[in-house]
Amino acid sequence: FTSLSATLGPVLRVACIAFAQMTQLPDISAVQTDPKSVFVTVSGCVRNSLQEEWRHEHSHFQFLDRLCDLIGASLDALGQIAVVTDASGALEGSCTDDNAAEDACVSCLKLARNLCACGSAVQKHFWARGIVAKVVGSVQADWSTRKVPRQRIWCETVPGFVANSVAGCPILQRRACDELFPFGLAAICALCWCRPQLAFVLVQNVLADEVDSGGGRIAQTPEGHCILFLLLSLLHADDENAAKEDQEKREAATREWATIFFSSLWNRGAFFLAYSGVRNLKVHYLQAFLCSMVEDPGGDRPPLGIEYLGDRMCGLADARGLLWHTLQGLLVGQDSNVSDLAKQLLSDDDFVQLAVQEMMLSLAALSDKFSIAWIAVAPTTEAVKTLGSSDLDLGLPVTRQCADAQAEDTAYCGLVGISFRELCRCAAELAVAPVHSGVVYSGRFIGAYLAGNVSFLDALHRLRFGDLNRTTLKGVTPSEESYMASTECYMFEQLRLVGNVVGRDRRAQDFLRMTGGLRVLLSHCHADPKLPLLREYGIIAVRNAVTDNEANRQMVRVMIAQRHEADAEVEVPYDEVGLV
Protein backbone atom coordinates (compact mmCIF):
# COMPACT_ATOMS: atom_id res chain seq x y z
CA PHE A 1 0.00 0.00 0.00
CA THR A 2 2.88 2.32 0.87
CA SER A 3 4.52 1.58 -2.48
CA LEU A 4 1.25 2.13 -4.36
CA SER A 5 0.66 5.38 -2.49
CA ALA A 6 4.14 6.60 -3.36
CA THR A 7 3.53 5.76 -7.01
CA LEU A 8 0.05 7.20 -7.36
CA GLY A 9 0.55 10.18 -5.09
CA PRO A 10 2.26 12.46 -7.64
CA VAL A 11 -0.15 11.35 -10.35
CA LEU A 12 -3.15 12.10 -8.19
CA ARG A 13 -1.73 15.47 -7.21
CA VAL A 14 -1.22 16.40 -10.89
CA ALA A 15 -4.75 15.20 -11.67
CA CYS A 16 -6.18 17.24 -8.83
CA ILE A 17 -4.29 20.34 -9.95
CA ALA A 18 -5.46 19.79 -13.53
CA PHE A 19 -9.05 19.37 -12.37
CA ALA A 20 -8.83 22.52 -10.29
CA GLN A 21 -7.43 24.43 -13.25
CA MET A 22 -10.12 23.12 -15.58
CA THR A 23 -12.78 24.39 -13.23
CA GLN A 24 -11.43 27.88 -13.91
CA LEU A 25 -12.98 27.57 -17.37
CA PRO A 26 -16.78 27.69 -17.71
CA ASP A 27 -18.86 24.75 -18.82
CA ILE A 28 -19.30 24.40 -22.56
CA SER A 29 -23.08 24.65 -22.27
CA ALA A 30 -22.67 28.23 -21.02
CA VAL A 31 -21.59 29.27 -24.50
CA GLN A 32 -25.20 28.87 -25.63
CA THR A 33 -27.03 29.75 -22.42
CA ASP A 34 -24.90 32.53 -20.92
CA PRO A 35 -22.13 33.77 -23.25
CA LYS A 36 -21.58 36.87 -21.10
CA SER A 37 -20.47 34.73 -18.15
CA VAL A 38 -18.08 32.89 -20.47
CA PHE A 39 -16.59 36.20 -21.50
CA VAL A 40 -16.15 37.37 -17.89
CA THR A 41 -14.66 34.11 -16.64
CA VAL A 42 -12.25 33.55 -19.52
CA SER A 43 -11.22 37.22 -19.50
CA GLY A 44 -9.92 36.66 -15.98
CA CYS A 45 -7.81 33.79 -17.28
CA VAL A 46 -6.55 36.02 -20.09
CA ARG A 47 -5.28 38.55 -17.55
CA ASN A 48 -3.59 35.78 -15.58
CA SER A 49 -2.01 34.38 -18.75
CA LEU A 50 0.13 37.48 -19.04
CA GLN A 51 2.29 35.87 -16.32
CA GLU A 52 4.74 33.28 -17.63
CA GLU A 53 4.39 31.00 -14.60
CA TRP A 54 0.61 30.83 -14.98
CA ARG A 55 0.92 30.00 -18.68
CA HIS A 56 3.25 27.09 -18.02
CA GLU A 57 1.06 25.75 -15.23
CA HIS A 58 -1.91 25.72 -17.61
CA SER A 59 -0.21 24.38 -20.72
CA HIS A 60 -1.10 20.72 -20.06
CA PHE A 61 -3.38 18.89 -22.48
CA GLN A 62 -6.38 18.63 -20.16
CA PHE A 63 -6.67 22.40 -19.86
CA LEU A 64 -5.96 22.89 -23.57
CA ASP A 65 -8.63 20.35 -24.52
CA ARG A 66 -11.19 22.18 -22.39
CA LEU A 67 -10.20 25.47 -24.01
CA CYS A 68 -10.42 23.93 -27.49
CA ASP A 69 -13.92 22.69 -26.69
CA LEU A 70 -14.92 26.20 -25.63
CA ILE A 71 -13.47 27.75 -28.79
CA GLY A 72 -15.22 25.21 -30.99
CA ALA A 73 -18.54 25.75 -29.25
CA SER A 74 -18.14 29.54 -29.46
CA LEU A 75 -17.43 29.38 -33.18
CA ASP A 76 -20.45 27.13 -33.67
CA ALA A 77 -22.58 29.63 -31.76
CA LEU A 78 -21.43 32.45 -34.02
CA GLY A 79 -22.40 30.45 -37.07
CA GLN A 80 -25.84 29.55 -35.69
CA ILE A 81 -26.98 33.05 -34.72
CA ALA A 82 -29.65 34.33 -37.06
CA VAL A 83 -28.83 37.24 -39.31
CA VAL A 84 -30.98 40.24 -40.09
CA THR A 85 -32.06 40.79 -43.69
CA ASP A 86 -33.44 43.81 -45.44
CA ALA A 87 -36.69 43.86 -47.41
CA SER A 88 -35.02 42.27 -50.43
CA GLY A 89 -33.69 39.39 -48.37
CA ALA A 90 -30.08 40.54 -48.54
CA LEU A 91 -28.04 39.95 -45.41
CA GLU A 92 -27.39 43.09 -43.39
CA GLY A 93 -25.92 42.00 -40.09
CA SER A 94 -26.54 39.86 -37.04
CA CYS A 95 -28.79 39.93 -34.03
CA THR A 96 -27.68 41.77 -30.90
CA ASP A 97 -26.84 38.46 -29.17
CA ASP A 98 -24.07 38.11 -31.71
CA ASN A 99 -21.89 40.54 -29.75
CA ALA A 100 -22.10 38.49 -26.55
CA ALA A 101 -21.20 35.28 -28.38
CA GLU A 102 -18.48 37.13 -30.24
CA ASP A 103 -17.01 38.52 -27.01
CA ALA A 104 -16.97 35.02 -25.51
CA CYS A 105 -15.19 33.62 -28.55
CA VAL A 106 -12.69 36.48 -28.59
CA SER A 107 -11.76 35.93 -24.94
CA CYS A 108 -11.15 32.22 -25.62
CA LEU A 109 -8.99 33.02 -28.65
CA LYS A 110 -7.00 35.57 -26.64
CA LEU A 111 -6.26 32.94 -24.03
CA ALA A 112 -5.21 30.46 -26.72
CA ARG A 113 -3.03 33.12 -28.35
CA ASN A 114 -1.22 33.80 -25.08
CA LEU A 115 -0.75 30.11 -24.30
CA CYS A 116 0.97 29.62 -27.66
CA ALA A 117 3.94 31.42 -26.10
CA CYS A 118 4.61 28.20 -24.13
CA GLY A 119 6.06 26.55 -27.22
CA SER A 120 5.44 24.12 -30.04
CA ALA A 121 3.65 21.51 -27.91
CA VAL A 122 0.79 23.92 -27.23
CA GLN A 123 0.78 25.20 -30.80
CA LYS A 124 0.64 21.67 -32.22
CA HIS A 125 -2.26 20.83 -29.91
CA PHE A 126 -4.38 23.65 -31.32
CA TRP A 127 -3.57 22.53 -34.86
CA ALA A 128 -4.22 18.87 -34.06
CA ARG A 129 -7.63 19.74 -32.63
CA GLY A 130 -8.46 21.64 -35.83
CA ILE A 131 -8.97 24.94 -34.02
CA VAL A 132 -6.89 27.02 -36.45
CA ALA A 133 -8.69 25.58 -39.46
CA LYS A 134 -12.06 26.19 -37.82
CA VAL A 135 -11.19 29.82 -37.03
CA VAL A 136 -10.07 30.45 -40.60
CA GLY A 137 -13.20 28.77 -41.95
CA SER A 138 -15.35 30.98 -39.74
CA VAL A 139 -13.65 34.11 -41.09
CA GLN A 140 -14.13 32.97 -44.69
CA ALA A 141 -17.80 32.30 -43.97
CA ASP A 142 -18.16 35.78 -42.48
CA TRP A 143 -16.86 37.41 -45.66
CA SER A 144 -19.60 35.67 -47.60
CA THR A 145 -22.49 36.53 -45.26
CA ARG A 146 -21.55 39.89 -43.73
CA LYS A 147 -21.30 43.31 -45.35
CA VAL A 148 -18.77 44.47 -42.77
CA PRO A 149 -16.36 42.60 -40.48
CA ARG A 150 -17.14 41.82 -36.87
CA GLN A 151 -16.06 43.99 -33.94
CA ARG A 152 -12.61 45.54 -33.98
CA ILE A 153 -11.45 43.33 -31.11
CA TRP A 154 -12.35 40.24 -33.17
CA CYS A 155 -10.43 41.59 -36.16
CA GLU A 156 -7.37 42.10 -33.96
CA THR A 157 -7.53 38.84 -32.00
CA VAL A 158 -7.99 36.36 -34.85
CA PRO A 159 -4.83 37.34 -36.82
CA GLY A 160 -2.85 37.39 -33.57
CA PHE A 161 -3.98 33.88 -32.65
CA VAL A 162 -3.19 32.42 -36.08
CA ALA A 163 0.20 34.17 -36.16
CA ASN A 164 1.12 32.93 -32.67
CA SER A 165 -0.02 29.40 -33.50
CA VAL A 166 2.95 28.98 -35.87
CA ALA A 167 5.52 31.44 -34.50
CA GLY A 168 8.96 29.89 -34.16
CA CYS A 169 7.84 26.43 -35.30
CA PRO A 170 9.04 25.60 -38.85
CA ILE A 171 6.95 22.42 -39.04
CA LEU A 172 3.73 24.30 -38.35
CA GLN A 173 4.78 27.19 -40.59
CA ARG A 174 5.08 24.79 -43.52
CA ARG A 175 1.76 23.19 -42.64
CA ALA A 176 0.07 26.58 -42.36
CA CYS A 177 1.50 27.64 -45.69
CA ASP A 178 0.19 24.49 -47.36
CA GLU A 179 -3.26 24.66 -45.73
CA LEU A 180 -3.93 28.41 -45.58
CA PHE A 181 -2.24 29.71 -48.71
CA PRO A 182 -3.66 31.53 -50.52
CA PHE A 183 -7.33 32.05 -49.64
CA GLY A 184 -7.35 31.37 -45.91
CA LEU A 185 -4.31 33.56 -45.40
CA ALA A 186 -5.86 36.35 -47.46
CA ALA A 187 -9.16 36.13 -45.56
CA ILE A 188 -7.36 36.66 -42.23
CA CYS A 189 -5.21 39.50 -43.60
CA ALA A 190 -8.36 41.21 -44.85
CA LEU A 191 -9.48 41.69 -41.24
CA CYS A 192 -6.54 43.96 -40.43
CA TRP A 193 -7.65 47.38 -41.68
CA CYS A 194 -7.56 48.86 -38.16
CA ARG A 195 -4.14 47.38 -37.32
CA PRO A 196 -2.32 46.53 -40.57
CA GLN A 197 0.81 45.42 -38.72
CA LEU A 198 -1.04 42.25 -37.68
CA ALA A 199 -1.27 41.18 -41.33
CA PHE A 200 2.47 41.64 -41.81
CA VAL A 201 3.22 39.69 -38.62
CA LEU A 202 0.90 36.90 -39.80
CA VAL A 203 2.37 36.62 -43.29
CA GLN A 204 5.91 36.88 -41.95
CA ASN A 205 5.25 34.01 -39.52
CA VAL A 206 3.40 31.77 -41.96
CA LEU A 207 5.71 32.30 -44.94
CA ALA A 208 8.99 32.59 -43.02
CA ASP A 209 10.64 29.57 -44.68
CA GLU A 210 9.41 30.46 -48.16
CA VAL A 211 10.47 34.10 -47.92
CA ASP A 212 13.96 32.95 -46.98
CA SER A 213 14.18 31.03 -50.27
CA GLY A 214 13.81 33.70 -52.93
CA GLY A 215 10.42 34.98 -51.87
CA GLY A 216 8.53 31.73 -52.37
CA ARG A 217 4.92 31.67 -53.46
CA ILE A 218 4.16 35.25 -52.48
CA ALA A 219 6.70 36.53 -55.03
CA GLN A 220 6.39 33.81 -57.66
CA THR A 221 2.68 33.01 -58.03
CA PRO A 222 -0.35 35.05 -59.14
CA GLU A 223 -2.13 34.17 -55.89
CA GLY A 224 0.87 35.41 -53.94
CA HIS A 225 0.81 38.65 -55.92
CA CYS A 226 -2.84 39.12 -54.91
CA ILE A 227 -1.91 38.69 -51.24
CA LEU A 228 0.94 41.15 -51.74
CA PHE A 229 -1.52 43.58 -53.31
CA LEU A 230 -3.78 43.19 -50.27
CA LEU A 231 -0.83 43.92 -47.96
CA LEU A 232 0.02 47.04 -49.97
CA SER A 233 -3.60 48.15 -49.70
CA LEU A 234 -3.37 47.76 -45.93
CA LEU A 235 -0.18 49.82 -45.97
CA HIS A 236 -2.02 52.47 -47.98
CA ALA A 237 -5.12 52.56 -45.75
CA ASP A 238 -6.04 55.12 -43.08
CA ASP A 239 -8.09 54.53 -39.96
CA GLU A 240 -10.55 57.41 -40.21
CA ASN A 241 -11.96 56.78 -36.73
CA ALA A 242 -8.61 56.87 -34.92
CA ALA A 243 -7.38 59.90 -32.99
CA LYS A 244 -4.24 61.60 -34.30
CA GLU A 245 -2.01 60.14 -31.60
CA ASP A 246 -3.41 56.65 -32.13
CA GLN A 247 -3.02 57.06 -35.89
CA GLU A 248 0.66 57.94 -35.46
CA LYS A 249 1.25 54.89 -33.26
CA ARG A 250 -0.60 52.72 -35.75
CA GLU A 251 1.49 54.01 -38.64
CA ALA A 252 4.74 53.53 -36.71
CA ALA A 253 3.87 49.92 -35.86
CA THR A 254 2.80 49.24 -39.44
CA ARG A 255 6.05 50.69 -40.82
CA GLU A 256 8.10 48.59 -38.42
CA TRP A 257 6.53 45.27 -39.35
CA ALA A 258 6.21 46.13 -43.03
CA THR A 259 9.94 46.94 -43.07
CA ILE A 260 10.76 43.56 -41.53
CA PHE A 261 8.59 41.75 -44.07
CA PHE A 262 9.77 43.60 -47.18
CA SER A 263 13.38 43.52 -46.05
CA SER A 264 13.24 39.73 -45.92
CA LEU A 265 11.78 39.71 -49.44
CA TRP A 266 13.94 42.29 -51.19
CA ASN A 267 17.22 41.16 -49.62
CA ARG A 268 16.66 37.74 -51.19
CA GLY A 269 16.26 39.06 -54.71
CA ALA A 270 12.47 38.91 -54.91
CA PHE A 271 11.76 42.52 -55.96
CA PHE A 272 11.75 41.96 -59.71
CA LEU A 273 9.45 38.92 -59.51
CA ALA A 274 7.09 40.53 -57.00
CA TYR A 275 6.94 43.88 -58.79
CA SER A 276 6.41 42.30 -62.19
CA GLY A 277 3.64 40.14 -60.75
CA VAL A 278 1.81 43.08 -59.17
CA ARG A 279 2.30 45.17 -62.31
CA ASN A 280 0.71 42.45 -64.43
CA LEU A 281 -2.33 41.96 -62.19
CA LYS A 282 -5.68 42.61 -63.82
CA VAL A 283 -8.69 44.00 -61.99
CA HIS A 284 -10.89 41.07 -62.98
CA TYR A 285 -8.32 38.60 -61.63
CA LEU A 286 -8.21 40.44 -58.30
CA GLN A 287 -11.99 40.36 -58.11
CA ALA A 288 -12.04 36.64 -58.83
CA PHE A 289 -9.39 36.08 -56.16
CA LEU A 290 -11.42 37.94 -53.54
CA CYS A 291 -14.53 35.96 -54.42
CA SER A 292 -12.57 32.71 -54.11
CA MET A 293 -11.26 33.86 -50.73
CA VAL A 294 -14.66 33.40 -49.08
CA GLU A 295 -16.85 30.38 -48.56
CA ASP A 296 -19.50 29.88 -51.21
CA PRO A 297 -22.58 31.74 -49.91
CA GLY A 298 -24.81 29.51 -51.99
CA GLY A 299 -27.06 30.21 -54.93
CA ASP A 300 -26.32 33.12 -57.22
CA ARG A 301 -25.81 35.62 -54.42
CA PRO A 302 -22.32 37.20 -54.49
CA PRO A 303 -20.25 37.35 -51.29
CA LEU A 304 -21.42 40.35 -49.28
CA GLY A 305 -17.97 41.30 -47.99
CA ILE A 306 -16.56 41.91 -51.47
CA GLU A 307 -17.91 45.45 -51.68
CA TYR A 308 -16.31 46.32 -48.33
CA LEU A 309 -12.95 44.98 -49.49
CA GLY A 310 -13.20 46.53 -52.94
CA ASP A 311 -13.72 49.99 -51.45
CA ARG A 312 -10.50 49.66 -49.46
CA MET A 313 -8.18 48.31 -52.11
CA CYS A 314 -5.60 50.72 -53.47
CA GLY A 315 -5.17 51.34 -57.19
CA LEU A 316 -2.79 49.28 -59.31
CA ALA A 317 -0.52 52.30 -59.84
CA ASP A 318 -0.64 53.04 -56.09
CA ALA A 319 0.54 49.50 -55.40
CA ARG A 320 3.51 49.91 -57.73
CA GLY A 321 4.40 53.20 -56.07
CA LEU A 322 4.22 51.57 -52.64
CA LEU A 323 6.59 48.83 -53.78
CA TRP A 324 9.15 51.46 -54.80
CA HIS A 325 8.52 53.16 -51.45
CA THR A 326 9.34 49.98 -49.51
CA LEU A 327 12.54 49.53 -51.50
CA GLN A 328 13.57 53.17 -51.08
CA GLY A 329 13.19 52.92 -47.31
CA LEU A 330 15.67 50.04 -47.21
CA LEU A 331 18.26 51.94 -49.29
CA VAL A 332 18.56 54.86 -46.86
CA GLY A 333 21.71 54.86 -44.73
CA GLN A 334 25.23 53.54 -44.93
CA ASP A 335 25.18 50.24 -43.04
CA SER A 336 26.11 46.86 -44.46
CA ASN A 337 22.50 45.88 -45.13
CA VAL A 338 22.09 48.85 -47.48
CA SER A 339 25.33 47.98 -49.27
CA ASP A 340 24.35 44.34 -49.71
CA LEU A 341 20.91 45.25 -51.06
CA ALA A 342 22.39 47.83 -53.45
CA LYS A 343 24.91 45.32 -54.79
CA GLN A 344 22.20 42.74 -55.32
CA LEU A 345 19.93 45.18 -57.18
CA LEU A 346 22.62 46.77 -59.34
CA SER A 347 23.94 43.37 -60.42
CA ASP A 348 20.46 42.17 -61.43
CA ASP A 349 19.94 42.89 -65.14
CA ASP A 350 16.21 42.26 -64.85
CA PHE A 351 15.88 44.87 -62.12
CA VAL A 352 17.94 47.42 -64.05
CA GLN A 353 15.77 46.94 -67.13
CA LEU A 354 12.61 47.22 -65.02
CA ALA A 355 13.70 50.44 -63.31
CA VAL A 356 14.74 52.08 -66.59
CA GLN A 357 11.51 51.06 -68.32
CA GLU A 358 9.33 52.33 -65.47
CA MET A 359 11.09 55.71 -65.46
CA MET A 360 10.85 56.21 -69.21
CA LEU A 361 7.19 55.19 -69.41
CA SER A 362 6.37 57.40 -66.44
CA LEU A 363 8.00 60.44 -68.04
CA ALA A 364 6.02 59.74 -71.20
CA ALA A 365 2.79 59.48 -69.19
CA LEU A 366 3.50 62.77 -67.42
CA SER A 367 4.30 64.57 -70.66
CA ASP A 368 1.00 63.36 -72.07
CA LYS A 369 -0.99 64.34 -68.97
CA PHE A 370 0.37 67.91 -68.85
CA SER A 371 0.93 68.43 -72.61
CA ILE A 372 4.68 68.81 -72.18
CA ALA A 373 6.75 68.86 -75.37
CA TRP A 374 9.11 66.09 -74.32
CA ILE A 375 10.85 63.50 -76.42
CA ALA A 376 13.85 61.69 -74.99
CA VAL A 377 16.23 61.26 -77.91
CA ALA A 378 18.99 58.68 -77.73
CA PRO A 379 22.44 60.26 -77.12
CA THR A 380 25.33 60.04 -79.56
CA THR A 381 27.51 56.96 -79.74
CA GLU A 382 30.45 58.98 -78.43
CA ALA A 383 28.48 60.01 -75.35
CA VAL A 384 27.31 56.46 -74.70
CA LYS A 385 30.91 55.21 -74.92
CA THR A 386 31.74 57.25 -71.84
CA LEU A 387 29.48 54.88 -69.91
CA GLY A 388 31.69 51.92 -70.75
CA SER A 389 29.91 50.46 -73.78
CA SER A 390 28.70 51.61 -77.17
CA ASP A 391 25.59 49.40 -77.29
CA LEU A 392 23.80 50.12 -74.01
CA ASP A 393 20.02 49.86 -74.20
CA LEU A 394 18.80 53.02 -72.50
CA GLY A 395 15.14 52.46 -73.33
CA LEU A 396 15.26 55.45 -75.70
CA PRO A 397 13.80 57.11 -77.60
CA VAL A 398 10.46 57.24 -75.84
CA THR A 399 7.62 59.28 -77.24
CA ARG A 400 4.05 59.92 -76.17
CA GLN A 401 2.84 57.84 -79.11
CA CYS A 402 4.93 54.93 -77.88
CA ALA A 403 3.49 55.25 -74.38
CA ASP A 404 -0.06 55.51 -75.72
CA ALA A 405 0.37 52.32 -77.71
CA GLN A 406 1.57 50.46 -74.64
CA ALA A 407 -0.95 52.02 -72.27
CA GLU A 408 -3.68 49.73 -73.57
CA ASP A 409 -2.14 47.15 -71.26
CA THR A 410 -2.22 48.29 -67.62
CA ALA A 411 1.19 46.75 -67.02
CA TYR A 412 2.83 49.29 -69.32
CA CYS A 413 1.17 52.46 -68.05
CA GLY A 414 3.63 54.93 -66.60
CA LEU A 415 3.46 56.09 -63.00
CA VAL A 416 2.15 59.55 -62.17
CA GLY A 417 1.46 61.44 -58.96
CA ILE A 418 2.83 60.12 -55.68
CA SER A 419 3.75 56.79 -57.29
CA PHE A 420 6.13 58.62 -59.64
CA ARG A 421 7.58 60.48 -56.66
CA GLU A 422 8.37 57.16 -54.96
CA LEU A 423 10.03 55.89 -58.13
CA CYS A 424 12.25 59.00 -58.26
CA ARG A 425 13.15 58.78 -54.60
CA CYS A 426 14.10 55.13 -54.90
CA ALA A 427 16.25 55.88 -57.94
CA ALA A 428 17.91 58.77 -56.08
CA GLU A 429 18.82 56.57 -53.11
CA LEU A 430 20.12 53.83 -55.37
CA ALA A 431 22.27 56.40 -57.20
CA VAL A 432 24.29 57.19 -54.07
CA ALA A 433 24.53 53.59 -52.89
CA PRO A 434 27.73 52.88 -54.89
CA VAL A 435 29.53 55.60 -52.91
CA HIS A 436 29.05 53.58 -49.72
CA SER A 437 28.98 50.02 -51.07
CA GLY A 438 31.79 50.18 -53.62
CA VAL A 439 29.64 48.60 -56.33
CA VAL A 440 29.84 50.00 -59.86
CA TYR A 441 26.75 51.99 -60.80
CA SER A 442 25.06 50.72 -63.94
CA GLY A 443 25.82 52.60 -67.15
CA ARG A 444 22.23 51.97 -68.24
CA PHE A 445 20.98 53.85 -65.20
CA ILE A 446 23.31 56.78 -65.87
CA GLY A 447 22.38 57.02 -69.53
CA ALA A 448 18.64 56.63 -68.99
CA TYR A 449 18.35 59.12 -66.16
CA LEU A 450 20.66 61.74 -67.64
CA ALA A 451 19.08 61.47 -71.08
CA GLY A 452 15.50 60.99 -69.93
CA ASN A 453 15.15 63.04 -66.74
CA VAL A 454 17.46 65.86 -67.80
CA SER A 455 15.59 66.28 -71.08
CA PHE A 456 12.33 66.26 -69.10
CA LEU A 457 13.68 69.03 -66.85
CA ASP A 458 14.57 70.87 -70.05
CA ALA A 459 10.98 70.48 -71.26
CA LEU A 460 9.58 71.77 -67.95
CA HIS A 461 11.86 74.81 -68.13
CA ARG A 462 10.73 75.53 -71.68
CA LEU A 463 7.14 75.22 -70.55
CA ARG A 464 7.76 77.97 -67.99
CA PHE A 465 10.16 80.29 -69.81
CA GLY A 466 10.37 79.35 -73.46
CA ASP A 467 13.77 79.04 -75.15
CA LEU A 468 16.30 77.39 -72.85
CA ASN A 469 19.21 79.11 -74.62
CA ARG A 470 18.09 82.59 -73.65
CA THR A 471 20.56 84.19 -71.25
CA THR A 472 18.06 86.21 -69.22
CA LEU A 473 14.65 85.52 -67.74
CA LYS A 474 13.72 89.20 -67.52
CA GLY A 475 10.17 89.98 -68.49
CA VAL A 476 9.09 86.33 -68.59
CA THR A 477 6.12 85.39 -66.39
CA PRO A 478 5.42 81.66 -66.34
CA SER A 479 1.81 80.54 -66.43
CA GLU A 480 0.07 78.94 -63.47
CA GLU A 481 -0.36 75.80 -65.57
CA SER A 482 3.41 75.54 -66.04
CA TYR A 483 3.97 75.85 -62.30
CA MET A 484 1.38 73.17 -61.66
CA ALA A 485 3.07 70.87 -64.16
CA SER A 486 6.45 71.43 -62.50
CA THR A 487 5.00 70.56 -59.11
CA GLU A 488 2.96 67.56 -60.28
CA CYS A 489 5.95 66.20 -62.19
CA TYR A 490 8.06 66.42 -59.02
CA MET A 491 10.74 68.60 -60.55
CA PHE A 492 12.68 68.77 -57.28
CA GLU A 493 12.77 64.98 -57.00
CA GLN A 494 14.07 64.74 -60.56
CA LEU A 495 16.72 67.39 -59.88
CA ARG A 496 17.80 65.48 -56.78
CA LEU A 497 17.99 62.26 -58.77
CA VAL A 498 20.17 63.84 -61.46
CA GLY A 499 22.38 65.49 -58.83
CA ASN A 500 22.92 62.14 -57.12
CA VAL A 501 23.69 60.38 -60.39
CA VAL A 502 26.48 62.83 -61.35
CA GLY A 503 27.94 63.00 -57.85
CA ARG A 504 31.44 61.46 -57.72
CA ASP A 505 31.00 59.56 -60.98
CA ARG A 506 33.25 60.75 -63.79
CA ARG A 507 31.34 58.75 -66.41
CA ALA A 508 28.08 60.49 -65.52
CA GLN A 509 29.71 63.94 -65.42
CA ASP A 510 31.25 63.52 -68.88
CA PHE A 511 28.02 62.09 -70.30
CA LEU A 512 26.10 65.08 -68.93
CA ARG A 513 28.51 67.53 -70.58
CA MET A 514 28.44 65.74 -73.93
CA THR A 515 24.62 65.68 -74.03
CA GLY A 516 24.05 69.34 -73.12
CA GLY A 517 22.86 68.56 -69.62
CA LEU A 518 25.06 71.14 -67.88
CA ARG A 519 23.11 74.02 -69.42
CA VAL A 520 19.83 72.41 -68.32
CA LEU A 521 21.00 72.13 -64.72
CA LEU A 522 22.43 75.65 -64.67
CA SER A 523 19.10 77.03 -65.89
CA HIS A 524 17.56 75.87 -62.59
CA CYS A 525 19.98 77.90 -60.44
CA HIS A 526 17.62 80.85 -60.05
CA ALA A 527 15.29 81.85 -57.25
CA ASP A 528 11.57 81.49 -57.79
CA PRO A 529 9.14 82.37 -54.98
CA LYS A 530 6.57 79.96 -56.41
CA LEU A 531 9.07 77.10 -56.42
CA PRO A 532 10.85 77.27 -53.05
CA LEU A 533 14.25 75.56 -52.91
CA LEU A 534 14.52 75.40 -56.71
CA ARG A 535 17.78 77.36 -56.67
CA GLU A 536 19.23 75.19 -53.91
CA TYR A 537 18.44 71.95 -55.75
CA GLY A 538 19.87 73.35 -58.99
CA ILE A 539 23.09 74.55 -57.37
CA ILE A 540 23.67 71.21 -55.64
CA ALA A 541 23.21 69.37 -58.95
CA VAL A 542 25.66 71.69 -60.78
CA ARG A 543 28.17 71.45 -57.94
CA ASN A 544 28.07 67.65 -58.11
CA ALA A 545 28.53 67.80 -61.89
CA VAL A 546 31.74 69.90 -61.72
CA THR A 547 33.41 68.25 -58.72
CA ASP A 548 36.88 66.98 -59.75
CA ASN A 549 36.00 67.54 -63.43
CA GLU A 550 37.91 70.42 -65.01
CA ALA A 551 36.18 70.17 -68.39
CA ASN A 552 32.79 70.61 -66.75
CA ARG A 553 34.08 73.46 -64.59
CA GLN A 554 35.31 75.34 -67.63
CA MET A 555 32.04 74.90 -69.50
CA VAL A 556 29.99 76.11 -66.53
CA ARG A 557 32.29 79.15 -66.16
CA VAL A 558 31.64 80.11 -69.77
CA MET A 559 27.87 79.73 -69.41
CA ILE A 560 27.76 81.77 -66.20
CA ALA A 561 29.82 84.51 -67.84
CA GLN A 562 27.39 84.62 -70.74
CA ARG A 563 24.47 85.02 -68.37
CA HIS A 564 26.24 87.80 -66.47
CA GLU A 565 27.16 89.59 -69.69
CA ALA A 566 23.54 89.55 -70.86
CA ASP A 567 22.16 90.73 -67.54
CA ALA A 568 24.46 92.44 -65.04
CA GLU A 569 21.86 92.00 -62.31
CA VAL A 570 22.10 88.22 -62.49
CA GLU A 571 23.76 86.83 -59.39
CA VAL A 572 26.88 84.88 -60.37
CA PRO A 573 27.03 81.77 -58.14
CA TYR A 574 30.72 80.91 -58.74
CA ASP A 575 31.37 80.02 -55.12
CA GLU A 576 28.10 78.14 -54.66
CA VAL A 577 28.64 75.77 -57.58
CA GLY A 578 32.23 75.08 -56.54
CA LEU A 579 34.11 77.22 -59.07
CA VAL A 580 36.34 79.10 -56.59
Automatic annotation (TrEMBL):
Membrane-spanning parts: none
A Gene Ontology biological process term: cell division
Keyword annotations: Cell cycle, Cell division
Superkingdom of this protein's organism: Eukaryota
Record GO cellular component, one term: cytosol
PANTHER family noted in UniProt: ATAXIN-10
Protein name listed in UniProt: Ataxin-10 domain-containing protein
